[in-house]
Each structure stands twice: as structure tokens, then as C-alpha cells.
């Protein structure tokens, strides 16, 4: 059993992990950059240690500094949160070389899923339905054109190392292929140092549905249903809900079992998310994330489980505290991401919080590291809070979200809170009628 865990992260997710540690009787160590000396995660942890200057590469991404912090404090395990080093296979290797434990998947699983071509090949072999496309990489333009003609346009060219929408180009016809292929390749090379690309049929109006999975690393794995994360702007999620408003219990059970069986098969350990595009009643695998995700609280709300506690348990070699049969959905949950950004352009808006008041009451959870007088530093991402509401059904969750947003006060900076007041008025949102393009179209219509 661990008696001390180091959290290699900051902000709300660091608090989230500290809370789980405290409930489990495990001491927590916060690490921080010099810009974060006054941050809430530093205050809330049992111990803290400065690991470097403000830019992330010199602090939150500095593997030697984080390992040294473990050695100085005697922490036996590291929780990476999300972002930063959470999907860095090399980090996992170094942690293990130092006799420490990474709270998360193996370096091998991170590596497999980090390369999209290998991820797809692996999932296809495991019986997970994938988007039709090239088998493996596409070596040259001639092959790309041949595949385009075979499967029919539009197609999408993706960099195997891609992420965040970088290295992804649509070709609507053979005439567009050369530019799309070369651009995807160049973006893969310049952003990720890897110019390998693959091709898929381009789905025109899908939803982004992701299945939460969890494994014990010893052949047991479960699914915790899906989240609909279709409401995104420039590949940043804005609003997430569970269960997905368009998914039937039968579809959920079927795709859930496929995912859980796949994870059991590879002895996957810890939390994972299998991302699908969902169109016309069909699921198509696109990517897997081998980390705890930002939006995990909506899943926690509907299942009444603590995913971070489970991550720590399986990292200690313990079994999960539930089986698939124990997991039943209770009601509906919605998360909205509060960013320190100024509308309509979503430009980052760091600065001093003059007043902060979190909403409360039944079915309301506010995960945030804000406090009165806190200064948001300009060096990190702009997420400053997640408001999660839970109701007996979707309409109750929507009403509760409306009520909770009315109680939330974040003064001194601009935030994305007004966006959600507007969004909740939309009949399509009230009806759960949206796909991956809905939000950007609505923003263009509403704010420009
Ligand atoms: C696609 C697609 C349509 N067809 N793949 C965007 C980021 C990366 N995770 C995968 N992405 C997409 N892949 C095929 N074959 C459309 C997108 C996409 C998207 C996916 C999920 C959520 C929002 C999106 C916004 C634009 C494009």
C-alpha cells in the first residue's frame, strides 16, 4: 500500500487527486512551479515542493525534477492527472527504473495508443469496430489517390502521431488529395516529428461518443458507459454529458462489452477512454486516451464511483471495488468547462479573481482551484473550473445546471460562463440534438 503519493500536476485535477488520497488515508505531495507558489493545490496537499520556473517544460514537464521531488519527499507513487506527462511512455519507464509506481497504464499501452495507426490495428484485432480506411500507413500520394478512388470521397488524411486536430486534412475529391496529403504529412512532421499518415472515410455529421473503461491489469475490465463530448470548439471540449442522449441501453451494452472485453484481453490497467465517432447508429473507433480525462466527473456522478480511488487501488495491486454487474446508471450528468477566456474569440484572460463563489446544493459539484484573491498565471491552460450537475434525468440535470450557473460568481476576469447561459436556451441543446459541428456553427451564428 502507498503511504505517500506525489501529484505531477496543478489546478483542479491536482485537488481532485489530493481529495482521493485524503479519503484513503494516503499523504499527498504537491509539486509546483515558482508561478504557482500560492496555488490551491499547494495549500491543500500535505507537503509541497517547488520543481522549477513557470514555463511547463522547466517544471511540470521536467522528469528529473519530478523524480527528485519523489526522492526528497519519500513519495512511492506518482499520479499524473491529465495533460502534462500523463501519456508520456518515457516518463513511465523512468518512474519504474527508480523503483516508483506510475498510477496509470503501462508504458507499452501508452505507446501503442499514442500511435494512431498501431492503436487502430490493435483495436481492429480486438474486435472493436473502426472507421473504414487504409490498413496501416499510406506511403505516398499515388497510394492515397488509389485508396480515395476505392473508398470514395470525402476522405480524411491523419498523421499517426496527431492530436488536437493537428495533422488532419479532409479531401473532398481527388483534386484535393495532393494538398491534403502533403499538409497532413508536413504537420505531423513539424508538430510531432513523425510524417507517417493514414486515411479514413470522412464521416460528415457524427457525434463524439467516448466509452469509459477501467481495468485491473490482471484480465478484469469493465466499462462505465459513454459520454457525449460532441460540443467542441477547435477540438476543445466545452460541454459533456453522460449518458449520451442518443444512445439506447442496447447499443450501450453492446459497445460497452466490446470495449471491456478488448481491455480485459490486453490486461489494461487503470482508467482509459475509447473514442468513437457515432453516425447513423454505428460506432467507429478513432483513438484511445490512456489517462483520466477532464470530463471523468460526469461518469462518476451517474455511477457513484470514485475513479481516482480506483486508479490508486489497481496501482497498488488491489482489485477494482466493483464488477460490471455492480455498475448501473443512476440519472444524468452534465459538465461545463469554465475557462478564463474572453468571448467571442475565446482569447486567454488571466488575472486576479476579486470574488469567487461556488454553487452548491443537491446534485452540484464544482471542481476548481480558484479562491478569492487568486491570480491566474498566464503560463498554463485556461481551464479554471468544471461545473458538474447530476439529476434524476436529463431535464432535471439541465434545470440544475441553469440554477447552478446562476449561483456561480467569478469576478475580476472574463470567463466562458455567459456562453453557457446562452447555450442552455437553445432548443437543440435542450433536446440533445447536436453533432460535432453544432457548436462551431452556433458560435458563428451567435457571436459573429
Ligand atoms: C474524424 C472526423 C470525421 N471522419 N475522422 C478530430 C480530432 C480527432 N480526435 C479526430 N477528429 C475527427 N476525426 C473521420 N474519419 C471528424 C473529426 C472531427 C471531430 C471529432 C470529434 C469531435 C470534434 C471534431 C471536430 C472536427 C472534426
Largest sheet: spatial strand order: 13-12-9-10-11-14-21-19
Q: Which structural category fits the helices and strands?
A: alpha+beta
The mean pLDDT is: 98
Query: What is the CATH T-level topology of the largest domain?
Result: D-amino Acid Aminotransferase, Chain A, domain 1
Range of helix content: 25-40%
Give me the CATH architecture of the largest domain, please. Answer: 2-Layer Sandwich
Number of helices: 15
Q: Any ligands, ions or cofactors bound here, and which?
A: ligand MV4
How many beta-strand elements? 22
What does this structure look like?
- By secondary structure, the chain is α+β, with helices and mostly antiparallel strands.
- The protein folds into three domains: 4-103, Rossmann fold (3-Layer(aba) Sandwich), CATH 3.40.50.20; 132-201, ATP-grasp fold, A domain (Dna Ligase, domain 1), CATH 3.30.1490; 207-446, D-amino Acid Aminotransferase, Chain A, domain 1 (2-Layer Sandwich), CATH 3.30.470.
- It has helices at residues 11-23, 40-44, 63-73, 89-97, 107-114, 116-125, 141-151, 174-192, 249-265, 296-303, 307-315, 394-407, 417-423, 427-431, 438-447, and strands spanning 4-7, 27-33, 47-52, 77-79, 101-102, 155-163, 166-171, 197-201, 207-216, 221-233, 236-242, 269-279, 282-289, 332-339, 341-342, 347-348, 351-352, 355-357, 364-367, 375-376, 383-391, 409-411.
- The chain has an eight-stranded antiparallel β-sheet with strand order 13-12-9-10-11-14-21-19, with helices on both faces. Strands 3-2-1-4-5 form a five-stranded parallel β-sheet.
- Helix 4 (89-97) runs antiparallel to helix 5 (107-114) and helix 7 (141-151) packs across helix 8.
- The longest helix is centred in the middle third of the chain and has 19 residues, at 174-192.
- It is globular and about 60 Å long.
- The mean pLDDT is 98.
- The structure holds ligand MV4.
- Ligand MV4 binds next to strand 8 and strand 13.
Amino acid at each position: 500500500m502507498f503511504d505517500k503519493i506525489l501529484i505531477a500536476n496543478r489546478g483542479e485535477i491536482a485537488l481532485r487527486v489530493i481529495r482521493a488520497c485524503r479519503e484513503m488515508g494516503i499523504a499527498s505531495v504537491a509539486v509546483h512551479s515558482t508561478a504557482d507558489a500560492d496555488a490551491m493545490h499547494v495549500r491543500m496537499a500535505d507537503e509541497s515542493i517547488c520543481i522549477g520556473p513557470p514555463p511547463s517544460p522547466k517544471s511540470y514537464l521536467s522528469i528529473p525534477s519530478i523524480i527528485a521531488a519523489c526522492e526528497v519527499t519519500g513519495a512511492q507513487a506518482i499520479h499524473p492527472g491529465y495533460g502534462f506527462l500523463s501519456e508520456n511512455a518515457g516518463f513511465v519507464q523512468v518512474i519504474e527504473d527508480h523503483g516508483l509506481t506510475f498510477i496509470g497504464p503501462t508504458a507499452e499501452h501508452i505507446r501503442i495508443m499514442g500511435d494512431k495507426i498501431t492503436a487502430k490495428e490493435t483495436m481492429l484485432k480486438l474486435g472493436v469496430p473502426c472507421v473504414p480506411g487504409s490498413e496501416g500507413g499510406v506511403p505516398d500520394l499515388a497510394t492515397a489517390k488509389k485508396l480515395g478512388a476505392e473508398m470514395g470521397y470525402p476522405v480524411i488524411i491523419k498523421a499517426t502521431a496527431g492530436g488536437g486536430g493537428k495533422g488532419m486534412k479532409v479531401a473532398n475529391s481527388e483534386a484535393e488529395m495532393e494538398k491534403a496529403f502533403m499538409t497532413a504529412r508536413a504537420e505531423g512532421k513539424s508538430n510531432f516529428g513523425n510524417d507517417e499518415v493514414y486515411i479514413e472515410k470522412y464521416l460528415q455529421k457524427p457525434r463524439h461518443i467516448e466509452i469509459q473503461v477501467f481495468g485491473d491489469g490482471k484480465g478484469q475490465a469493465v466499462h462505465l458507459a459513454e459520454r457525449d463530448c460532441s460540443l467542441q470548439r477547435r477540438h476543445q471540449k466545452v460541454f459533456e454529458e453522460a449518458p449520451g442522449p442518443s444512445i439506447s441501453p442496447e447499443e450501450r451494452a453492446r459497445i460497452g462489452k466490446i470495449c471491456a472485453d478488448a481491455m480485459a484481453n490486453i490486461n489494461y490497467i487503470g482508467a482509459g477512454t475509447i473514442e468513437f465517432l457515432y453516425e447513423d447508429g454505428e460506432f467507429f473507433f478513432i483513438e484511445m486516451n490512456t489517462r483520466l480525462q477532464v470530463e471523468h466527473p460526469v461518469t462518476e456522478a451517474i455511477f457513484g464511483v470514485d475513479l481516482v480511488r480506483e486508479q490508486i487501488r489497481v496501482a497498488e495491486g488491489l482489485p477494482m471495488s466493483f464488477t460490471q454487474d455492480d455498475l448501473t446508471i443512476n440519472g444524468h450528468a452534465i459538465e461545463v468547462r469554465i475557462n478564463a477566456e474572453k468571448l467571442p474569440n475565446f482569447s486567454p484572460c488571466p488575472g486576479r479573481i476579486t470574488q469567487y463563489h461556488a454553487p452548491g446544493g443537491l446534485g452540484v459539484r464544482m471542481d476548481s482551484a480558484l479562491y478569492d484573491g487568486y491570480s491566474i498565471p498566464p503560463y498554463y491552460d485556461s481551464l479554471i473550473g468544471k461545473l458538474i450537475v447530476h439529476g434524476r434525468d436529463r431535464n432535471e440535470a439541465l434545470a440544475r445546471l441553469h440554477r447552478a450557473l446562476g449561483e456561480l460568481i467569478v469576478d475580476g476576469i472574463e470567463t466562458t460562463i455567459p456562453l453557457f447561459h446562452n447555450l442552455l436556451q437553445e432548443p437543440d441543446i435542450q433536446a440533445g440534438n447536436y453533432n460535432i459541428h453544432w457548436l462551431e456553427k452556433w458560435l458563428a451564428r451567435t457571436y459573429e
